[in-house]
Design brief:
The complex is a heterodimer of chains A (742) and B (179). Chain A has 742 residues and is of the alpha/beta class. Chain A folds into three domains: 230 residues, Rossmann fold; 188 residues, 3-Layer(aba) Sandwich (Dimethylsulfoxide Reductase, domain 2), CATH 3.40.228.10; 135 residues, Beta Barrel (Barwin-like endoglucanases), CATH 2.40.40.20. Chain A is built from 24 helices and 29 strands. In chain A, the strands form eight sheets. A seven-stranded mixed β-sheet of chain A has the order 5-4-17-16-15-6-7. A six-stranded mixed β-barrel of chain A has the order 24-28-25-27-26-29. In chain A, helix 6 packs across helix 14 and helix 9 packs antiparallel against helix 12. Chain A is globular and about 70 Å long. With 179 residues, chain B is an alpha+beta fold. Chain B has one domain: 2-Layer Sandwich (Alpha-Beta Plaits), CATH 3.30.70. In chain B, 20% of the residues lie in helices and 26% in strands. Chain B has six helices and ten strands. Chain B has a four-stranded mixed β-sheet. The chains are: A alpha/beta (742), B alpha+beta (179). At the A-B interface, helix 2, strand 3, helix 3, helix 7 and helix 8 of A face helix 1, strand 2 and strand 3 of B.
């Protein structure tokens, strides 16, 4: 190896700067550190942007360049560790496929650079025209989630009700049911649990590093972990038992467990009497749904269902059925009832607010700036129909419905769309349908990369700083798993911005100023930091250097009570087994068995299910070179198929197959979707389904690393809306598979 | 002088690959070069099936075949147990790649055949390799066999362990926990 002298290094560095492309010159770090031994390494606190877990971490920076990242030892999400995505997304700081300056689509459909000022002026002019003509309620802000406070100020000012998150393509059936039944999203207390049942929740795929640390420790200590999943997922790999289930039938399993708990008198009667409302209504509707009935549907023996119920009861309240996440929620016709049945199983165990069962995750009470009251226009009803009478009255308006935006554009309800770190063309069902977002009068995206939604639909792209370039106010480190003490974390900029980008706050300041809206954001991030920390008595400089701080006041177990009466936050103060809002709109208040929408028939038909690959964060990382290299090493784009089924089709491991689905909308001719996929032939999958990782199928030509790699589950599914919670039901899809490329 | 070694518990590994990318960042490797990898295996038939995952990297053998075959003595072992590559001496003949039964040596962009270094400079300063510290499942334990109180010494005394391909006589410094 040639030693890199200081002089050589400086030449390389100067070359990089002159080219202005900031493509990293990867060099041997040992030589790098030897050459630059006197250059100090600084550790800058931030938190990961690789998924919504947001693990606190440190960025190591040398000579203004990111070297590596390391988990924050205090943080309850990751205890000093990080998954592959965290490292991968950190390296994406230098990904050449970032959007490096504001862009405008020209009349020829091609993008041209535009100055920030010019972009603000043009967008402001168009937006003001749209608002004048169609009201502010024709404007939509779509976001993966995050920085809602900035967007809300803007939407309030122009009179729009339409803050829409990605959650309807993820897990809103869960939050909908849990908020309505328990007024809270409780979290699992792994460290004190004796028996843990996971169904459709894979902490080793959709990774919470601290959960995995706790779970591997629990396994060593002999505490029991049981995983129900059609696939032998990463969590199942370390579990005491993997129980494969027919996909789409988890509701039957949960109802079968509940039936066993009640019929065998194993449930916590004291808890139910004191803290449950609607038990009789639930039991009357389900008293014939025995473990045998459940077994016939979900393909788990009745004896096993009873064994699970008995083991849960034996260990209660230090036992739980994990509340779940993306896996079972929103993706089936029965997802809302699955979430309801989950609440019920846990409540029958009496584990709510109990250590080892379900506990709230401690959250700090952060302060916030109190903006001066402004004269604001009246808002119309939400255009996505969430919470709107005669549309989707029981869907949570705070989360909205993301997948049917093209319909709302076609109906003339939506004229302008902002998409902030949101890419529905890849993350919502049916990309060909989602491409119609381009038909809105104005589409503005605020991404970091050239995602599909920007490439195919945006009129303007306003690139944000990369997260390692941003300072952001404190946020609670909370959720997913229970932790006794509240924590906060913040982001400090690790490196100077590489490109002509801006943070969102500056983008909105620029845009609103151009719209002649006076001083809508009269504050800086430092003002926000001071306001957030004021009630906690923590010095801003301390947080800026420590990055993640734990506060001393712990949460305590015990069902919330007020004046000696249950007060968990629902109308009755109790866990409500029946949802009044559902009944009000003509639907049953309690869950009962609902069969899947579709069922595979014949040798060539399979239900298509998906899940998170442990080194990818859905499509967010599908252009990350380091993570794509891992995909290549481990055949990460391949579709999983059970060996017996593959044998019948003559498919061998690594063969290419044609995967085909039929997409139909009312009043339109059916469309056949065909993709070629390589097949992983495996024993680790339930025979009736095929499984594909959620990461791949990038189709933005400007995402040069990931473009054209693999296919995505959303390719095969029509855009639909489950009426109770707004879910997209993408696992209610049948694909036909045959050997050979199409 | 410490005697470095690593203990890997493959039963705990869930294949997230953080070890690989953390190492790539530590050593600033390009995406397609890596010093550790995972081997995935299925055992049994549905539904009675289990998965095995083996993290594999340079074993820092006490009898390293890559050193034996190296014509220029570019590969050498130090008293602390670490097998090193001297980039000045390496001529890129790739004999070491052929000799290594664990298939863990990779040429870099200059043809120098690299591998895991047990993070030599960093562990000398008392740091832990990032493949160890990033791992959420605590699959790897790194430490000094000469320190009887080190975590690895205590675990090696307590657990039944094995090495990969013992019949090759390589005497690896990476031990695996037997389940």
């Amino acid at each position: 190896m040639r030693n890199i002298s200081r002089r050589t290094f400086l030449q390389i560095a100067a070359g990089t700067a002159a080219a202005g492309t900031a493509i990293p010159k990867l060099m041997d770090m040992k030589a790098f550190s030897a050459a630059m031994a006197d250059a100090p390494v600084t550790k800058v606190p931030t938190y990961c942007n690789g998924c919504s877990t947001g693990c606190p971490m440190f960025a190591y920076v040398k000579n203004g360049r990111l070297w590596k990242v390391e988990g924050h030892p205090v943080a309850m999400k990751n205890y000093g560790t990080l998954c592959a995505r965290a490292h991968g997304v950190a390296t994406d700081l230098y990904n050449k496929d970032r959007v490096r300056q504001p862009m405008k689509r020209g009349a020829d459909g091609k993008f041209q650079p535009i100055s920030w000022d010019q972009a603000f002026q043009e967008i402001a002019e168009k937006l003001t025209g749209i608002i004048d003509k169609h009201t502010g309620n024709s404007v939509v802000w779509m976001a993966h989630g995050g920085k809602e406070s900035y967007a809300s100020l803007f939407l309030d000012e122009i009179g729009s009700s339409n803050y829409i998150t990605h959650y309807s393509t993820c897990f809103t059936s869960k939050t909908n049911a849990w908020d309505k039944m328990a007024a809270n999203q409780l979290t699992i207390d792994i460290r004190r649990a004796k028996y843990m049942l996971f169904a459709g929740r894979n902490y080793g795929g959709a990774i919470i590093p601290a959960a995995m640390k706790q779970l591997t420790a629990a396994k060593e200590q002999g505490r029991k972990i049981v995983v129900v999943d059609p696939r032998l997922c990463e969590l199942a790999k370390i579990a005491d038992e993997w129980i494969p289930i027919r996909p789409g039938t988890d509701l039957a399993l949960f109802l079968g467990i509940a039936h066993t708990l009640v019929s065998e008198n194993l449930y916590n009667k004291t808890f139910v009497q004191k803290y449950v409302f609607g038990f009789d209504e639930f039991w009357n509707a389900n008293k014939d749904f025995t473990a045998e009935k459940a077994a016939a549907i979900c393909d788990i023996p009745a004896a096993k269902i009873r064994e699970i119920a008995r083991d849960l009861a034996k260990n209660a309240p230090a036992a739980f059925l994990d509340p779940g996440y993306h896996g079972l929620h929103n993706h089936y016709v029965s997802s809302t009832q699955i979430a309801q049945a989950n609440v019920i199983v846990n409540a029958l165990l009496g584990n709510f607010y109990q250590q080892g069962g379900l506990m709230p995750s401690a959250r700090p009470a952060l302060g916030s700036l109190k903006p001066a009251k402004r004269l604001q226009p009246e808002k119309g009803p939400r255009i996505d129909g969430a919470g709107v009478p005669n549309e989707y009255p029981t869907v949570e308006p705070g989360r909205g419905i993301a997948q049917h935006m093209p319909d709302r554009i076609a109906q003339g309800k939506v004229k302008a769309i902002f998409m902030y770190h949101f890419n529905p063309l890849r993350t919502a069902p049916d990309p060909e349908y989602q491409k119609n977002i381009a038909k809105a009068d104005l589409v503005v995206t605020i991404p970091v990369d050239w995602n599909e939604s920007s490439y195919y639909t945006a009129h303007y792209i306003l690139p944000e700083h990369y997260f390692l370039e941003r300072m952001e106010p404190p946020k609670p480190v909370s959720g997913n798993i229970s932790h006794d003490f509240p924590q906060i974390a913040m982001r400090m900029p690790a490196v100077k911005p590489l490109h002509d980008t801006k943070p969102l706050l500056e983008i909105l300041k620029g845009l609103t100023k151009a719209m002649k809206i006076d001083d809508l954001y009269p504050f800086t991030v430092d003002d926000e930091i001071s306001a957030a920390l004021a009630p906690l008595g923590i010095d801003a400089n301390r947080l800026k250097s420590e990055g993640c701080i734990e506060l001393p006041t712990p949460i305590k177990p015990g069902f919330p009570e007020k004046d000696g009466k249950p007060a968990c936050g629902t109308f009755t103060g109790k866990i409500e087994f029946t949802i009044g809002a559902f009944k009000l709109h003509g639907r049953p208040g309690v869950p009962t068995w609902i069969p899947p929408l579709v069922a595979p028939k014949g040798d060539d038909e399979f239900r298509l299910i998906h899940g998170k690959q442990p080194w990818h964060s859905h499509s967010q990382t599908n252009n990350t070179p380091y993570l794509l290299a891992m995909t290549k090493s481990y055949h990460g784009t391949w579709m999983w198929m059970n060996r017996q089924r593959a044998d019948k089709l003559g498919i061998r491991n690594g063969d290419t197959a044609t995967v085909e689905s039929r997409i139909e909308y009312p009043g339109q001719p059916a469309r056949i979707v065909r993709k070629n996929m390589q097949v992983k032939v495996t024993e680790m999958l339930y025979p009736e389904c095929v499984w594909i990782p959620s990461a791949h199928g990038c189709f933005s030509p400007n995402m040069t690393y990931g473009f054209g790699q693999g296919a995505n589950y959303n390719d095969f599914a029509p855009s639909r809306v489950e009426p109770l919670s707004g879910g997209c039901m993408v696992q209610e899809v049948i694909v036909k598979v045959r050997k050979g490329a199409s | 002088m410490p005697r470095y070694a690593m203990l890997i518990d493959p039963a705990k590994c869930t294949g997230c690959g953080a070890c690989r990318v953390a190492c790539q960042m530590q050593w600033q490797l390009p995406p397609d070069r890596f010093y550790n990898r995972l081997e995935f295996r299925e055992k049994g038939t549905f539904p009675k099936v289990r998965q095995e995952i083996f993290p594999v990297q340079c074993m820092h053998c006490d009898n390293p075949p890559c050193q034996t075959v190296c014509p220029t003595k570019a590969t050498y072992k130090t008293a602390d147990g670490i097998v090193h590559v001297n980039p000045q001496k390496c001529i890129g003949c790739k004999m070491c790649m052929t000799a290594c039964p664990y298939d863990v040596r990779q040429p870099n962009e200059k043809g120098i055949v690299e591998k895991c270094r047990f993070c030599d400079d960093y562990v000398a300063k008392g740091e832990q390799p990032p493949c160890v510290t990033t791992c959420m499942n605590t699959v790897r334990v790194f430490g000094d066999l000469d320190d009887p109180k080190s975590e690895i010494s205590l675990l090696l005394a307590e657990k039944e362990v094995y090495t990969l391909l013992p019949h090759m006589g390589t005497k690896p410094r990476i031990f695996y926990v037997r389940k």
